[in-house]
User: What shape does this take?
Amino acid sequence: QIDQPSIVVEVRIIENHWNISANKNKDTMSFLPDIASWALGGGAGAGAAANNNNDGEQENNDGGGGDGNEAAAAAAISEDEMRAKRMARLAALEKKDLTAGSSNGISGGGDGSDAPSSMDVDKQPSSVVVPSPAGSDAQPMEVDDEVVKPAATASSPHPKASTSHSSPTKEDVTMEPAPKKKIKAPPKKDTPADAQAKLRRKKVLLLRRVLLVTFGETSSDRTTSCVHLSLDDDDMYNAVKSPSGVQVRHIAELLAARLSLSPSSRCLETLPSQTKLGLVAYLGGCHKRAGDELKDLRQGKKKENSLEELCGILEEIRNQVCILTMVVCLRCWFYIGGSVVSYAASSLMVPDLFDLGNDAPLQLAKCLSTTSTDPTSSITFDVLGKNSSFYYCVCEELHSQDADSFGTVIGDVVKHITDSLSKVTTLLDEGGATDQGVGGNGLFLASALRELCTNKKATVALAKLPSFLLPPAGTQVANERIQPPMPQVQVPPQASQQQVTLIRMMQSMRGDSTPAYLRRSGPALEKQTVLGLVLRLGIPADHPSIASSFSNPAQRSRKDISQITDGFRRQLELYQSKCNELVKGLVVAGEESRKRVIQWFIDALLVNVNADGQRPDRSKNSCEELLMNLSMVLLKLCEPFFANPKKALLVDPAFVSSPESHGGIYDLTGDNALPRLGENVTNAATYNPKNAFIPPCFFFCSRSLALSVVPGGSRYENIARNVYHAHRQIRQQNGDLRHDTRFNRLLQVQYAKEINMMSPNYITDVFRFYNMAAGLFLNMEKEMLRMMPEHIVDDLCSVLVYASSFCAKLLSGVDFGNLFRLTVKLLSKEYSSLVRNYNLRAKLGDVLHDIFLPGNSESHSEVPDSVTCDPLAGGQPYLTSDKLSKETLAPSLLLLYGEVENTGFYEKNDHRTKIAALLKFLWESPEHKPAFKRITEDKKSFITFANGIVNEMNDKFASVMETLPSIRTVQLQMSNPQEWGALSEEERETITSRHDNNEREVQRALPLCNSVMKMLGFLNTDKDIRDMFLLPDMCSRLANMLLHVLTKLVGSRGLDLKVDNPDSYNFRPKEMLQDLCVVFSSFAAADEFQKECAKSGYYTPDLMNKSVKTCRKLGLLVGESMELFALLATKVEDASKVMNSDEDLYEDAPDEFLDPLMQEFMVDPVLLPTSGNVVDRKTITQHLLNNDTDPFNRKTLSIDDVVPANELKEKMKLWLDGKRAARDQAS
Assistant: This one.
């Protein structure tokens, strides 16, 4: 029922829409501005007027346009002319209203004021309405027929106009405070006219709340909070033409009129002002308010007859497909925003359709960014359901029109966000102004990208953008070099070009410029890709806000520092949660976007392969903040299978053998090859996963932790060490810690690092990940375990050792059962041949000591007892309750003690000290006694262990006893102010530096010496173990080591040596002498030991006799032990006399009978097949314990390769027997 011209216009619109789809290379939607002009010219109202004419109710109004010729003429009028025409008409209507009042049943105030008059319904005798004052937002209040209210007089005072800055609510636009007194009137049923009037009023108020617009010819039709529209047709507010008010067909005209306003129009100057309210924000607000109203109406207790009609209008605002462009896309079954969404979609695709939508993509980006600050105005949320939000509907509408154009729109939105994001350098930056791009800080911009990904089609479009990934490796683009712009420097105005060049050169030499980088590199990842721009933001230690927040940390309480740290940590965790939501949105959007995200992960890990160093190259690697955030994101992706063993089983270990799946991250060859647990590994396993996403998620997470938290822990440890040394140095120099600039700066850096490295949520997730990884490794076959990347086991050890030292409290509440069992398994003899990395095996021993050794032992730490105990074994320690531990751990630790000889010079001391503490705990546990009995079954392993003990004591104790006097000398020198002050500054620095080195050496060595001596004491209480020490391979070395220590303690007056704070060095000489004499007494009855002591170069009769006297004097030994030690002195002296008599027999021995290395008469000569030389078995055995090569030509040699020289041995025996017979005959 519309006139012919309207049909022609609409048909042409539809034809043009389809022509656009068929000819995308032409001017897309070039006709849409003409449609806007048609709407401005009254075309939208023309169809309605024609409809009224066909019903016989057409009237000639000022804005009437029922004639098709008039509509065509209006379309030709320019926008400015039409606005001028409307402003003139509005002035005329206001003047008419002031003088004559309305002709539609509304009368003006009796005094000629501007006060709005009451509606038709107010003329009924059963109700009285209080008129609203002039300029007020409040409108005449509807009154129930049962209530009689006093009428207002013309002389009543008028309150001031409302200045509320919020959208009009139901109370703002419909009601005033009710009178306190209520006079009941006899009930009277509304007439049909009353009901129509009320319905008209409800619709007007509803449109005010939803569309923020008013219309009509009288001043009562206006409010300061809404935009007043001048319509060419009075159809929607004329009581005669539309007795029930606004109809569904009028919604399109209202929207067209509102959106056609110029941004500079005075009509937008409302309270609050709508002048800066963009098209997208306005339409989004309308869509959301319509949904809220619709929900309230449907859930309301009072069901009115008008409910269906009011809901129809609201659904039309959300539902109706715009008659201008979207007729063919109508989806009546879905609550998408019809007119609102269609106009928004059109504005995004053709921004110049409306003046308010010239920058529609930027407006959309701003709306997405404000979600985090004002969730109530979110365009991505709707009360009617997740898929009914304004943003979702806009995306669906755009995609349905043209998928390519949709991708372009999303690209424009993302570019606006990333452009603003590139200007933000840290999370502490406030962000730029919103009038220049999106603006805002990092959290707002990350939230914008997160909200953009609430629609899966938009998420896929984002992932398909060229800026999402780095260029592929090996391409020409990937090798292009980017030189960031040089920072601006102050150049004198009169400087010549040569001087400017020199200044620039000096700036470059100082390192002020940002280094150049390749397009495929770590810096490019964080500056050129969408996810890189997001994940690079953090809280760097060198930020000015950190320095100001942690100013003078040495003068502040730890509680104050903790509060500041927690504040920064909450800010960081909030941002990381947005990053996680963004990545998760990309992952769940579909296969296409998920593959792009996985490729980004691969690129990120490959370009940062060398980021685990102490000082990574910033021209090649990404910043530390990006790598930490990346590991956090991957941890959250792995979280679903942390505590779900069934999901964890979906991790296919063959992933590391599939180069096409891991993208080169786990290559076996090349510069970036990652070592595996086993040796000679190949990619033989077949990768056929049940779930294609979980395996890369797990292994990429493990690799990201190797590049973030693991080196981060090492860097934090270095910082903590520097803080400790600075503190100690300042104390020694009697300096002021609270005001020392360097010390305060070091503390600032340490506290800044703790924001991330001691975050309870982050570190706990790391623990849970590694415990899950340990569970996977436990269930693998040995052959598959060989193929696993070595760094995973190494990293879990590093993280646990770090945590035990700096954040032990964070260990509480986490299950470490799998980690314990994997550690014991890898240390066992069965797997010792699999894991051949001695440093890794030593770290496994450290984990047992630092994490699982109960706190009541000598090696007490801050690790909670709940961590060391197995909840499934009644709270018993893992060390004593685990079955595999009871069977294998004791011999494994003895083997490990010898193996750590191959680690670093200083590191092996710490390793062996911890192993000795573990062995002591196991020795005292009855559960491990059978395992210690089995130690003697493996002679080779035991000899390796015993040799390690002897080596350490020989090297370390001698060094300690030589260094302690130097330490004492410097201590006395520093304690004398006159003597110390007389030295120059350079001399004091030299002495202090040497003194610090000596103290560190003693502090490393003495704990090991103490633990070794105690270990020898308790181990040799077992006869089988004692017999192993008496073997020819070890007995002489043991005797020499014990006498060497005895010489240092007794012969050199070591017991009289004094130092300040001896406990800080673990220097307890009397306790060590007691342990030493206990060991002597345990071997006192052995003839072999007596003879080896007599042959030792450290033995003298005076040394033994003095030691016996000292022990008795100090009460170090009592009872049987003291008697055995005294007996040993006598036995050794007798053996020495016999040995001296035999020495004369060897004086003229042939050279072939002498060991070529030791120049001693050989006892058991053997031939070395690698060089052909003959040496004593004892000599070569001791040599091979420390070096597996032939001492004559460095060829590889083992003790099993040597050949007994039986002929030579028999010849030597005959010669020696002859010499003894001659001696006896002579005597």
